[in-house]
Amino acid sequence: MTDNNNLIHALIGAVVTLVVSFIPFSPVLGGGVAAYLGRTTPNEGLRVGAISGAIAAIPMAVVGLFVMSIISFGYMPGGFVALLFLLGMFAMLYTVGLSALGGYLGAYLADEF
Hints:
The protein is mainly alpha-helical and 113 residues long. It has one domain (3-112). It has 4 helices and no strands. The chain crosses the membrane at residues 12-37, 49-75, 81-110.
């Protein structure tokens, strides 16, 4: 597959992740869809899934920053900001990591069936 097709499949996987974000472990589903549509190898599925997770994390981060700016009204102690930064990094790792796992599983399923 070309990189352009992989990017389109990653975008579709990111949309799936965002639509089913109310389900726990939804990035696995989004990454799996991206790799399954691309009919990639498992190693390529990891990459497509991770790209899908990174794309899905962008709107999540924007919404999170917007909500936190409303909650804080511009004032937050330094320790709280550091805690929010660490939680944000964990959320990014959660999204991208589980999407990569889903990409691997989706490519494996595409190869098997």
